[in-house]
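Researcher: Quick test of sequence recovery. Tokens follow.
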């Protein structure tokens, strides 16, 4: 292995990103991290915004770059951050998404039940820590919020962290949705630490307001776009049907790794007890799913093959998004129509006609306040400090209900 590990990566958002040390270089070159090149950051969003083909790899490198900038700012302001702490927090942000499965959030609870990507990230980091002989001890403490300097964890995971600053800027760039552009430079230059907590100086209040508004707009325009919801739920249903058929011992093509997860319902404790299982999960990426979907498109099972053909050919469901709950009579009418049209049972029709809800609040003060620091030392929550009426409303959870159904059974 080369001794020259201070490499630079040319990033489309920030230009040249320098790898700060040998350990980061080795972690980036580890197979677990290289897998992130094969997992799209935005799942199936490219079916709506064709440019959204960037990967978790891009995002992790970008978030690490922003963390370098943030640490430089804090040290220049006299905040005591040791070299060990600096290295550890850079590792924590670099690996924060390493537990993402294929298609990121779309299949988060489909391949493995009730286990989120943060839990798997933590387990993979622990595995890497063993491999690197304890060099990730402090990074794990920071990642899991078990370290005394809480602001280091808040830089990795909070409502104004380097993760969010990068993904908003990056996702808006690749989707072309300019509403997501945020002034990350300005915000980072204005962060500070008071009483072990991350704060932002009052001169950046308008940049923080824009960040929160951009986040809200990106959620409804990109992450929770109704056509994206339609496509991602179709993919969830494909996997659900494949698991159902596997349980009945129906012969089904799948890559060996995906096959393991189709035939079993692993839980968090399975992962904790079985390190080989974690190894198998770390071998999964978008290619396993896409290869299987392509083959399943010609399967004899009508439900599975139709869903797969539809997603491959972008024949997506019609989506009705509304503020009130879906009328149950309307839902039943669509189910009956699907049964009649496709000559299938009601339980099978539920793969084609379904209802659900999504929610979003751009700012949740109960999780971690974004405190604004005034020149006299006063701290005030951004929702109270802001003279922008929208910030108060951004704290409210917005729930939207949606109904999906094939376009050829419209009432």
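Model:
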């Amino acid at each position: 292995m080369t001794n020259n590990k201070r490499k630079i990566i040319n990033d489309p958002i920030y230009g040249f990103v320098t790898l700060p040390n040998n350990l980061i270089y080795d972690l980036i070159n580890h197979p677990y991290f290289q897998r992130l090149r094969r997992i799209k950051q935005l799942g199936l969003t490219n079916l709506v915004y064709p440019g959204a083909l960037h990967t978790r790899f891009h995002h992790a490198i970008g978030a690490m770059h922003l963390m370098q900038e943030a640490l430089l700012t804090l040290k220049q302001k006299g905040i005591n951050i040791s070299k060990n702490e600096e290295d550890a927090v850079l590792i924590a942000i670099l690996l924060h998404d390493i537990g993402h499965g294929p298609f990121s959030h779309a299949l988060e609870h489909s391949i493995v039940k009730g286990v989120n990507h943060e839990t798997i990230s933590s387990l993979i980091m622990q595995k890497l820590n063993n491999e690197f002989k304890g060099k990730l001890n402090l990074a794990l403490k920071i990642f899991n919020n078990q370290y005394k300097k809480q602001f280091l964890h808040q830089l990795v995971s909070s409502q104004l962290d380097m993760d969010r600053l990068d993904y908003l800027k990056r996702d808006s760039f690749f989707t072309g949705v300019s509403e997501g552009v945020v002034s990350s430079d300005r915000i980072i230059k204005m962060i500070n630490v008071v009483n072990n907590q991350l704060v932002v100086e009052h001169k950046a209040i308008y940049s923080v307001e824009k960040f929160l508004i951009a986040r809200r707009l990106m959620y409804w325009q990109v992450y929770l776009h109704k056509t994206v919801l339609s496509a991602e739920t179709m993919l969830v249903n494909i996997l659900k049907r494949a698991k159902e058929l596997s349980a009945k011992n129906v012969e089904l093509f799948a890559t060996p790794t995906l096959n393991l997860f189709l035939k079993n319902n692993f839980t968090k404790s399975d992962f904790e007890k079985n390190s080989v299982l974690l190894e198998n999960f770390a071998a999964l990426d978008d290619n396993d799913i896409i290869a299987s979907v392509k083959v399943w498109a010609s399967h004899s099972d009508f439900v599975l093959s139709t869903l797969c053909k539809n997603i491959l050919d972008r024949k997506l469901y019609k989506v009705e998004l509304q503020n009130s709950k879906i009328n149950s009579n309307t839902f039943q009418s669509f189910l009956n129509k699907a049964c009649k049209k496709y000559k299938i049972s009601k339980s099978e029709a539920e793969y084609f006609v379904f209802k659900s809800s999504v929610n979003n609040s751009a700012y949740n003060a109960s999780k971690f306040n974004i405190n604004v620091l005034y020149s006299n030392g006063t701290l005030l929550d951004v929702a109270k400090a802001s003279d922008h009426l929208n910030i108060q409303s951004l704290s409210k959870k917005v729930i939207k209900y949606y109904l999906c159904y094939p376009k050829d059974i419209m009432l």
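The mean pLDDT is 92.
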